[in-house]
Amino acid sequence: GNPLFASGGITIFEVMSGLARKHNAINLGQGAPDTDGPADIRQAAADATMNMSNQYPSMMGIPELREAVARHNKRFYDLDIDADREVMVTAGATEALANAILGLVAPGDEVVLIEPLYDSYLPIVKLAGGIPKLVRVTPPHWELPRDELAAAFSDKTKLVLINSPMNPCSKVFSDDELGFLAELVKRHDAYALCDEVYEHLVFDGRKHHPLMTFPGMRDRCVRIGSAGKTFSLTGWKVGYITACAKLLEPISKAHQYLVFTTPPNLQYGVAYGLNQDDSYFNGFTAVMENKRDYLMKGLREVGFDVLDSQGTYFITCDFRPLGFEGDDEAFCQYLIEKVGVVAIPVSAFYQQGDVRHFVRFCFCKREAIMEEAIERMKKVF
Ligand code: PMP
Ligand code: GLN
After folding, report:
1. Distance from Cα 66 to the centre of ligand 2, integer Å
2. 272 in the same domain as 348
3. Which residues span the domain enclosing 138?
4. Are residues 195 and 48 located together in one domain of the fold?
5. Average pLDDT, the chain
6. Do the interacting molecules here have an ipTM over 0.95?
7. CATH number for the domain including 88?
8. CB of 185 within 8 A of CB of 222?
């Protein structure tokens, strides 16, 4: 096979969910809710399945969803988006990311990436022939090393990939950091690929600010969202890209050869979802913030050093206060086999280095499930 994929392992999320099933452990690993998204959204997709065409929809996505994405951009971020020319529907954020990287990066172009990295970023950059330039943020504060970031840019930089709110560290980039990044992008005449799948999972009264809203960035950003995250429907794999027509055009060329289009019934469901009033979005954030608080309190009681979680589905913890001898992979193995709980080792998000004492727990779960996981950990630690 292609050494790019063949030499790598199975993605950490699949590995850990497989182990959860095998050991019948509570899965606080992979980021997926254990309760399905709203019944009315699912009903809208069911109605569309029965009443609308089930044949190939337009390659760019059904007009109803593209318009809903444009309206969502206006409502939350005051962005004026042309639904016909600046929105494309994809098979989840994963395909959106792949389209953007394959469509925009030519062999030899440099791509600036910030570790910890979501699993698909680096393989697709390499597939495109891009040259990755890695900068890292590290626990416990995940501060952006500005000098290193500036040094990672050059006249060969085509793209910087930014994930805010950021998986797995739950960092929400500050306006100051985003402004700094925007200046670098403009100075080097580059573009930003903005993975904003957790845009509605931002806590403690913070607001999500897309890089696209910063001065001069409207036509330099490719903004990606995911219905999986926003509506707790991860299995649907519906994502959406917002970008100016000049950037979207090459991105759509990648999409036409990767999947061409995505299921129309699910697109109708997501359009219905995005058109809901603010109470859905506010309620969703509030429910998830409560879940975060619940798991955070439990993890503290177990004895972890629990880091701040400003957004996403995740909490990162340092397990050294528990007295465990070994690295994060050994800890996760112990946790599965001896405790019956699954977490994700944070080192899986780094190419190399010394981040070996942190694990990620996922809190988009029912309280009773999280309670049971905490009880199991309290018994052992
Ligand atoms: N980006 C990040 C940062 C993620 O955590 C995820 C996880 N699901 C994705 C992209 C992929 O989203 P989707 O399931 O819509 O492909
Ligand atoms: N984004 C999810 C996570 O970080 C997993 C998605 C996947 O399994 N590919 O847990």
Report:
1. 25
2. no
3. 39-276
4. yes
5. 97
6. yes
7. 3.40.640.10
8. no
